[in-house]
Amino acid sequence: MDYYGSQMSKLIEQLSLLPGIGTKTAQRLAFHIIRMPKERVEQLAAAMLNARSNIRYCRECCTLTDQELCPICSSPTRDKRTIMVVENTRDLAAYEKTGKYEGVYHVLHGAISPMLGIGPADIRLKELMQRLQGDVGEVIIATNSSLEGETTAMYISRLIKPTGIKVTRIASGVPVGGDLEYIDEVTLLRALEGRVEL
Ligand code: ZN
User: Fold this and answer.
1) 36, 108, 146, 170 — which has fewest CB within 10 A?
2) What is the pTM (predicted TM-score) of this model?
3) Which domain holds residue 23?
4) What is the reported pLDDT for 3?
5) Separation of 181 CA from ligand 1 center, angstroms?
6) Looking at the domain assignment, is residue 1 inside a domain?
7) Under the phi-then-psi rule, with left for phi > 0, alpha for psi from -120 to 50, and beta for the rest, what region is 62?
């Protein structure tokens, strides 16, 4: 029996498809939305549509951006010879917040996970290897210290080693399994400064 009417049920169903949102939360959000002023709902819908249609991957580092080249890659002051490899754009944002890193990034959009069936071809590794054909002095691997992050770090270092480019891994001061984005700036900086050559 449809207690809410089909429009409301459709809204609840769509919301419940979002990650981390169960049926109860979807219902609460749906009721909140229909009580919102119509203009606010229009703004919300427009923001979602605009973000979805205008955000793409940076041509250089693969981070999410609304330009062809992200602000970091197009900055003349960043050191293009140092590339920090991170799992996602949120990790990049965490390092940027420290304000101390002057190199550029490469965003993998995931990590290798044999358990989840995610292989090297499923993340932005090919793009990284292409970048390494340019003038690169050091690759800092800053994937998470989870099993997937470590597997990815090992895989990447083995790929890069034969090129002769210096490969380093951020220090393991980062809590095991901890998502980089939840770690404070001091810990991140310490991990970066204490990086070791692989
Ligand atoms: Zn970029």
Assistant:
1) 36
2) 0.78
3) 6-54
4) 75
5) 19
6) no
7) left
